[in-house]
């Protein structure tokens, strides 16, 4: 029997361990997702790298039908449990994917990728291009990345470069006839870490709209 068939890739093992050892962090909505999605008419949403599901559950409670995707089985199971406990199970579909290998099917009015970072190699721009193609006409792709190092960040490398929203847009290389940049900026906010500590951090925000026609 081929023993490698059942071996879990490093990225999946890493994120499994992460969610098995952290029970509560990440269950709140990200402020930028709330700010951007609150004025929208609810529809179908896809949350890439949903983690503990703070964004997916918030969207469901605003009336969205959400597909929440993560590489960690524990994360998606927790999102499913929380959706059930909060009475929004019929609005939250959970799928386990390594997005480097597979992508959920469907079309979406909103695709969110909040802090979709990983210490493992990932052709993120390829995943995000696929996400842009999964948008319905007039749909939005929201990418929020770290733009600064928080005291609790796993990577404290002082030379780290955080790609700017314009650099990320350039990497996506989307056809301007079909997609346009609706927002690209770097707001600051007061963030809370896993032990309750606070610090001012920068977010790199890119919002892409698929054209209506
Ligand atoms: C930094 S966390 C952000 C989680 C959540 N979006 C949030 O804002 O709290 C990155 C998430 O991406 C997921 N992830 C990392 N690599 C992935 C991959 N290849 N496919 C799917 N999910 C992945 C991780 O399991 C983790 O939940």
Helical amount: 25-40%
CATH superfamily: Vaccinia Virus protein VP39
Shape verdict: globular
CATH architecture call: 3-Layer(aba) Sandwich
Q: Averaged pLDDT, please?
A: 93
Gyration radius over CA = 17 Å
Tell me the number of strands.
8
The biggest sheet amounts to:
8 strands, mixed
Protein name: Class I SAM-dependent methyltransferase
EC number: 2.1.1.222, 2.1.1.64
GO molecular function: 2-polyprenyl-6-hydroxyphenol methylase activity; 3-demethylubiquinol 3-O-methyltransferase activity
Keywords: Methyltransferase, Transferase
Written account of the structure:
With 213 residues, this protein is an alpha/beta fold. It has one domain (3-210): Vaccinia Virus protein VP39 (Rossmann fold, 3-Layer(aba) Sandwich). Helices cover 27% and strands 28% of the residues. It has helices at 10-21, 31-37, 54-61, 73-85, 124-133, 165-172, and strands spanning 44-48, 65-70, 92-96, 108-114, 135-146, 179-185, 188-192, 198-210. Strands 1, 2, 3, 4, 5, 6, 7 and 8 form an 8-stranded mixed β-sheet that branches. The longest helix is centred in the middle third of the chain and has 13 residues, at 73-85.
């Amino acid at each position: 029997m081929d023993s490698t068939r059942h071996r879990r890739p490093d990225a999946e093992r890493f994120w499994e361990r992460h969610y098995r050892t952290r029970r509560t962090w990440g269950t709140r909505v990200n402020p930028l997702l709330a700010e951007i999605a609150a004025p929208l008419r609810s529809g179908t949403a896809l949350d890439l790298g949903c983690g503990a599901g703070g964004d997916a559950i918030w969207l469901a409670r605003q009336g969205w039908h959400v597909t929440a995707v993560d590489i960690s089985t524990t994360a998606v199971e927790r999102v499913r449990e929380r959706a059930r406990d909060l009475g929004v199970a019929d609005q939250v579909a959970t799928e386990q994917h390594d997005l480097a290998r597979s992508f959920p099917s469907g079309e979406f009015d909103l695709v969110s990728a909040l802090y979709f970072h990983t210490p493992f190699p990932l052709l993120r721009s390829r995943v995000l291009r696929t996400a842009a193609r999964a948008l319905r006409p007039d749909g939005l792709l929201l990418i929020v990345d770290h733009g600064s190092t928080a005291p609790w960040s796993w990577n404290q490398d002082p030379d780290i470069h955080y790609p700017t929203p314009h650099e990320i847009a350039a990497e996506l290389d989307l056809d301007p006839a079909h997609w346009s940049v609706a927002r690209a900026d770097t707001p600051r906010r007061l963030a809370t870490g896993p032990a309750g500590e606070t610090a001012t951090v920068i977010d790199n925000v890119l919002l892409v709209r698929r054209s209506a026609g």
